Amino acid sequence: xxxxxxxxxxxxxxxxxxxxxxxxxxxxxxxxxxxxxxxxxxxxxxxxxxxxxxxxxxxxxxxxxxxxxxxxxxxxxxxxxxxxxxxxxxxxxxxxxxxxxxxxxxxxxxxxxxxxxxxxxxxxxxxxxxxxxxxxxxxxxxxxxxxxxxxxxxxxxxxxxxxxxxxxxxxxxxxxxxxxxxxxxxxxxxxxxxxxxxxxxxxxxxxxxxxxxxxxxxxxxxxxxxxxxxxxxxxxxxxxxxxxxxxxxxxxxxxxxxxxxxxxxxxxxxxxxxxxxxxxxxxxxxxxxxxxxxxxxxxxxxxxxxxxxxxxxxxxxxxxxxxxxxxxxxxxxxxxxxxxxxxxxxxxxxxxxxxxxxxxxxxxxxxxxxxxxxxxxxxxxxxxxxxxxxxxxxxxxxxxxxxxxxxxxxxxxxxxxxxxxxxxxxxxxxxxxxxxxxxxxxxxxxxxxxxxxxxxxxxxxxxxxxxxxxxxxxxxxxxxxxxxxxxxxxxxxxxxxxxxxxxxxxxxxxxxxxxxxxxxxxxxxxxxxxxxxxxxxxxxxxxxxxxxxxxxxxxxxxxxxxxxxxxxxxxxxxxxxxxxxxxxxxxxxxxxxxxxxxxxxxxxxxxx
Length: 608
Ligand code: OXD
Ligand code: MN
What we know:
alpha/beta, 16 helices, binds oxalic acid
């Protein structure tokens, strides 16, 4: 397998005809598309062009080519049909937030939480990198749709990339191929996504967004969050900006449905920062007692939602713009997330996991027993005595959402689902209780805006330090955070029946460093209280922080070793510590703070 993660200069440059690929534009590709592709081809000078149609034979041919070019290792097809392993360059294993830019004419549009580049200067700099960068390589033209086909919010993007791994991954993560030409028709409204691996050099790595031009240029990385441009770049950064302009919202949230024993269906969306368990929560399997009673949980999405107000009901509705999961694998196993295990049992790309002698894959936490030997994520022999990890802590699976046995029946519904509750959550060892409810929408927005979480391996940088991550969107708000918060506050006025807002923390630890709450499927107990609150049923007492359940308000039956009152208790000193540490965010926004933020903080102080 290619070690450097720089996919080879195409050795098949002269013999593309042997593969069933389309080298000229399909009839359905409109004039605007052809013109733009022509310009990019003139700049990047690829030796081949493949126009992807999204068909199954094409996908298989791409995998076969990828195996030939050592971009993929074919896994044991009996154990894992349709599954492949990819190893990235070891310098390219996470999102590079410090190399991610929003490029606009002026800095104010971008605000204090983004890196800014003046757009003309950014194009000039990036042109210098893209010029001739695909010589000897193949350019894949990947048309895709974000959102269920026919949805009023669905968006077309076209990604040009010289990475076969990226082209195939886009086929899993989006509705890719012919269908996008149909959705686009004659329109020029598509996001122009240009991507090259370059030489995968962090010194020449830039992920640039040009919201005004509906354009994304990404150079020098093959990592999902930097390179699958439909995901973080389009569906969050560009879409959040569009949403602010057009009155809807793009958020870093999972979206799940819960069916109660009588058949009542409730949907909630939840924002947790990267690698804090969104995928696990979205695929939750209720504890046995709940299952026996008839409770069911279904997944609409695990990472991104687009939400708008349905004018006929005054309620929020949501879709998942993606078609696949790009999930973290370490820690995933048959106990923690059986649905994810099932989803990745076939037609999945594994990135940076360990390879077993029988052609299966392994990662830390997959099984209690360690394998006697493996090839680690860098391609070196590994045994339990080895110093390093077998799989990278941010190793991933890329699987079609259709593989999820708990996929919600409405996951492809263009009209989306109604949202009854919004949950904010972080990874907090101390100071933050298991669950509470905001007093109202404005208070809920304040809770989301001041969300804190300990950093994880999903982004390059120090792991385990608390950072303020407003709405879990800090790395993904594509414009000025001041305007983003105002947009959240204003959404209230568009709704006649707005969702209830909650805050959760599955990660609180006791004095000995032990988690105080078991998490995973047991989170159903908290979810049930949340759902009951959404429907105006369960009891809660008013506290300094918000509405809180007492032990008797949550079904704790059968749980051992949980001291509910302790996990919910927050002393005034802890609230004060939290208030002080929020100053970092308030100072960043200095002078630009929406007044609701100031009032909510003052109200909290006065409740102490
Ligand atoms: C992700 C992330 O990959 O948030 O979803 O980093
Ligand atoms: Mn994410």
